[in-house]
TrEMBL record, chains A, B:
PANTHER family: SYNAPTIC VESICLE MEMBRANE PROTEIN VAT-1 HOMOLOG (PTHR44054:SF1), SYNAPTIC VESICLE MEMBRANE PROTEIN VAT-1 HOMOLOG-LIKE (PTHR44054). Gene3D superfamilies: Medium-chain alcohol dehydrogenases, catalytic domain, NAD(P)-binding Rossmann-like Domain. It holds the Pfam family ADH_N. This is Enoyl reductase (ER) domain-containing protein.
Length: 405, 405
């Protein structure tokens, strides 16, 4: 008979005669090893009973940020697995993601970048493996989406239970991890700040990126919305399929000129992840009661390293609205940063978004999946704006994301 | 038999023997006068037929702004009645109103103040007396609410037909004239920019004023909205009746301190007609995703004349948001000025507002009615913040607003 023992603490060691033994709490103290794999041990215990022990790793593969700067500042290390706090759970991450925030955080440009050495990663999807003592709304084995202000690029990460959202059965770990940041960001910007209603005109920059695709899909849930989307020409076919009405090639065309040709009176909502002169143009392209929402500073990031000239230039080119001139212009200017939001509006958005997923109205688009070891290439994919949809990471290899049960 | 002749052009004159005669086009050239009142002439025409002619005044009592400054810059004059343009109608105004905009415009502080000598007045309610040749949606005799970027403080004013809204039968001219500026302003700020939804917390300054009462009533159309309203203590009973949850006496209490006691995490919407240090406090009192809407600069107006020190001080004390700091704070800053809006959003709001009036959900509150000749006292009533609700003007006397038919 083979017994399956989970969630035990054990330690391998060698005895004086160089024989491999292990202690295992609470099941046995010493046992005879019969088979050892990465994830399980078969052994005979003191009573001669055959048993299988699912190994619980004591360390977690982790992408560590060792300094602010280029891709070389990221290293793969084994870090100890932390015990979840009272209100936390331990999650075995099957997928993580890269957001623009992590590109900026790596350069130390992101408000809220972790202290060094530290761990980035705002999203994860995986399996709950351990519960903090006060957690009642989740159980071991639940498939969950996790949101945390960094610290999730880990094979095993602790996450506050209220920041974990059970995944629908049909949702893959790749889809799950693509939902929080991009879709919650797009949701808050369009529906809370932008107050998107039928017939409105929306400009979406980087329309082939994670937020861009999420925003386009959310625009399509409202009747008769016109979407202007910027992307390089090679991506136009795809963003058109997603729902962009007027694709604009920002490399060869001035987006403001193109938008104004179609909408001479201006547009209702502009989502601006760029800042700099594009932000200033955005403000000018709003119609009365139009809303511009700034949610990033992509123009500050010009290469893999920190470029202070580019940062200063972007800052300089960004307008600074004067209240007295905003009044006659009827303009609405917003800053958005999901990482600084309290949990309540995030939860509200996630509940709505999971419902929209179940109704088939939104579906995260996956660009590519990379192992932790490929982090530099994965980041370059995003930085060079090659991606169409979400760039996914996994601590495993890409064929082993969903564990065999 | 007495015939009623309307809309004729006539002229009174005396003949050589000093007898009063008149010519009247197209009905008659000379006629024998039998009775003359301010508004009608009874006469016998050439055929001996008795007739009554409703006089059409050739001049219009008008409040004229002769210079920028104090109350003495406003004079009552008789100005010629203009012929309506193709898309305009001529309206016999039965009521007009005073808005804060007119107080500022009188001092030359309002963007869009008319050239001198000019006519203020953004709202009117009255009766259509003449149609431009292309007007099809209105007819002579219609009771209408008029909105125009100044020029309505006239007994007879021309108004673009699309800026006239037929009044429900139950609505008085006093109520009608109180609807556009205050209610459209409150409507756009709360429902378009503010995206007011159930359970939100709102700060309304000058809660006993026109916009304040309109905004409070509109807040009550949404479930479970908390309203903080500032007003002097003597007005608290009334604003509480209108719907303010927490009245704050701005003269003896710091509104920010009082709001924060009840809502330590901040509020969702702040309507700011003040600017200066109150605007800066408002920005600081928003919760994440909170929206502050600036729609006036009452703090710039300290007395009946133009006070450049007060203007400079208010300007100086008003914050200037930096986009990069708005992002982590998740703040939304808006400027609002109804006078600079295109017609479309105003029409949309008016349609909704008239529906809300018909449902009994909103009811303009009238503070007081003043004749044109009392304009200085009427303005002082508002400037000194004595009013609770709308301050109304009429070219007639207050007992003759609704004409006897």
């Amino acid at each position: 008979m083979t017994r399956l023992i989970q969630n035990s603490t054990f330690r391998l060691f060698k005895n004086k005669s160089n024989r491999l033994l292990f202690t295992c709490y609470p099941t046995c103290t010493h046992a005879k090893l019969s088979n050892l794999t990465r994830s399980s041990i078969e052994y005979s215990n003191i009573e001669g009973e055959k048993a299988q022990l699912k190994m619980e790793k004591s360390t977690s593969k982790t992408i560590v940020l060792t300094g602010y700067g280029g891709y070389d500042k990221l290293r793969i290390e084994e870090w100890p697995i932390m015990k979840p706090g009272k209100d936390e759970v331990l999650v075995n991450m099957r997928t993580n993601s890269i957001n623009f925030a992590e590109l900026m955080a790596r350069q130390g440009l992101y408000d809220g970048s972790p202290k060094l050495p530290g761990v980035l990663g705002m999203e994860g999807a995986g399996i709950v493996t351990q519960l903090g003592e006060d957690v009642t709304n989740l159980k071991v084995g639940d498939r969950v989406i996790c949101i945390k202000m960094f610290g999730l690029w880990k094979e095993f990460a602790t996450v506050p239970a209220e920041q974990c959202f059970p995944m629908p059965d049909a949702m893959t770990f790749e889809e799950g991890v693509a939902l929080p940041v991009n879709y919650v960001t797009a949701y808050h910007m369009l529906f809370d700040i932008g107050n998107l209603r039928k017939g409105k005109k929306v400009v979406i920059h980087m329309a082939a990126g994670g937020v861009g695709i999420a925003a386009t899909q959310l625009c399509k849930t409202v009747p008769n919305v016109t979407v202007f989307g910027t992307a390089s020409a090679v991506k136009h076919k795809i963003i058109r399929e997603v729902g962009v009405t007027h694709p604009i090639d920002y490399r060869t065309q001035d987006w403001q000129t193109e938008v104004t040709k179609v909408a001479p009176d201006g547009v209702d909502i502009i989502l601006d992840p760029l800042l700099g002169s594009d932000a200033t143009k955005a403000y000018a392209t709003l119609k009365p009661l139009g809303k511009v929402i700034h949610f990033g500073a992509a123009n500050m990031v010009s290469g893999p390293g920190t470029n202070y000239f580019q940062i200063a230039k972007t800052w300089w080119q960004t307008y600074r609205p004067a209240i007295l001139s905003m009044m006659p212009a009827n303009k609405v200017v917003a800053g958005y940063h999901m990482g600084h939001l309290p949990q309540e509006p995030i939860r509200e958005a996630m509940v709505d978004l999971i419902a929209l997923y179940n109704e088939g109205k939104i579906k995260p688009r996956i660009d590519s999946v990379w192992s932790y070891e490929q982090i530099a290439d994965a980041m370059a994919q995003m930085h060079d704006r090659k991606n169409i949809g979400k760039v996914i990471l996994t601590p495993y290899d890409e064929n082993n994301i969903t564990p065999k049960t």
